[in-house]
Amino acid sequence: MGTVLILAVGSVLFLTAQDVMASNARLVEKVSSLSNLWSATAAFGALAVALAAGRVALKSYRAQTLQVRHLEQDKEAELASKFGLWATDVYAEPDDVIYHNAAAQPVYHVIVTFYVGGLASRTTHRSKPLICGTLGPTREPATLPAAREALVEFLATAARDESAHVGREANRKDLYVLYLEIQFTDGNGRTWIRKHDGTLRWMSSIRDVAALSAK
Fold first, then answer.
1. DSSP alpha helices (H): ranges in 77-144?
2. Nearest residue to 182 (alpha-carbon basis) of 105, 125, 97
3. Would you say 115 and 127 are in contact if contact means Cβ atoms under 8 Å apart?
4. Are 203 and 193 spatial neighbours (Cβ–Cβ below 8 Å)?
5. CA 67, CA 106: separation in Å to the nearest integer?
6. What value does the mean pLDDT take over residues 116-136?
7. Contact call for residues 208 and 200 (beta carbons, < 8 A)
8. pTM (2 d.p.)
9. How far apart are CA 102 and CA 83, in angstroms?
10. pLDDT beyond 70 at 120
11. Which ranges in the chain belong to alpha helices (H)?
12. How many Cβ atoms are within 10 Å of 139's Cβ, its own excluded?
């Protein structure tokens, strides 16, 4: 009888010990899972912070690079920005072409192209490129007689072309919005084109300028 009782109690204790061990194992497993989850969350958070910092650094670097590039471009365009050439309005008489070079150095290979529109035909008339050569520094705006002569001839030709378009005799009243573009090389040897709205564009070579003027 006593032996049976001892065996029964031992079995109960054994089963209880197994349940405790199993519970502990599950507890350890849960704690381990939570620890792994926390580690993964912490690692993901650190990665997100690193990526955000990297994006901020990259954005700052790009902004600084762009600012440096703009400063370099402004410095490169300093001489070119001091040269300008313009014409009087299409209805103004006498015709005149004026230039001003505020730089201390001449500009070279100056090429001028005139444009004017036709009121009736809505056609843009374009002159042949006029080579003006080298223009030295000026204290005040100065006239350019050769360009003025070319302008007078161009306006007359544009009026005749307009007559061909509209089928009747045309004159300056049938023309509008006279403007010009200039191409030149500054004292640093850089070649530029100044568009009719005043903007400057750097050209890689005189050949590129000549090709552009032929279009």
1. none
2. 97
3. yes
4. yes
5. 29
6. 92
7. no
8. 0.61
9. 6
10. yes
11. 2-76, 145-166, 206-213
12. 8
Residue 172, CA distances (Å) to 123, 125, 167, 169, 178 in order: 14, 13, 15, 11, 11
Give the separation between CA 78 and CA 90, rounded to whole angstroms.
31
Helix (H) or strand (E) holding 110: strand 107-118
3-state SS assignment for residue 133 = strand
Q: Are 50 and 56 in contact (CB under 8 A)?
A: no
User: What are the structure tokens assigned to 155, written together?
Assistant: 């306006």
Residues composing the chain: 215
Give dist(CA 98, CA 87) in Å, integer.
6
Q: What is the dihedral of CA 205, 207, 211, 213, to 10 degrees?
A: 80
Q: What is the pLDDT of residues 129-186, one digit of tens each?
A: 999 999 999 999 999 999 999 999 999 999 999 888 878 888 888 899 999 999 999 9
pLDDT tens, position by position, 40-73 = 777 767 777 777 777 766 665 554 544 434 334 4
Task: Confirm if 144 and 124 have CB atoms less than 8 A apart.
Answer: no
Q: CB-hemisphere CA count at 13 Å for 92?
A: 11
Instruction: Yes or no: say if 159 and 173 are a contact pair by the CB < 8 Å rule.
Output: no
197: helix, strand or coil: coil
Q: Cis link prior to 94 (omega < 30° from 0)?
A: yes
Order of strands, edge to edge, in the sheet holding 83-87?
Answer: 83-87, 97-101, 142-143
Pairing outcome for strands 130-135 and 107-118: antiparallel
